[in-house]
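Model it.
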Amino acid sequence: MKKNIQKAYCAVDYAFQRIGGKYKGRILWVLREGLLRYGELNRAIVGITPKMLTQTLKELEADELITRKVYSEVPPKVEYSLTETGKELIPFISQMRSWGEKQIAAN
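Modeled.
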């Protein structure tokens, strides 16, 4: 288990510990289309603070759901993308998105 994961009592609990939270699913969803730089992610995730974005990206990287590539240039260039494990989550996030759209339309 990763250090930020508490003891999981079932597979569903484990999965939600890794992808739960206000921004993780949104970041994974935005990255489904390919590489994005930090500033692009910051603009794409409405309402997130830079501190929270940085923290959430570190958690996703520690859980091996995204990769971070740093280029040694000035100004620094950093790109984020999904790992293969992260890509496996996209169909499930898509289903959750569809469910959410139906619920919003019903209310």
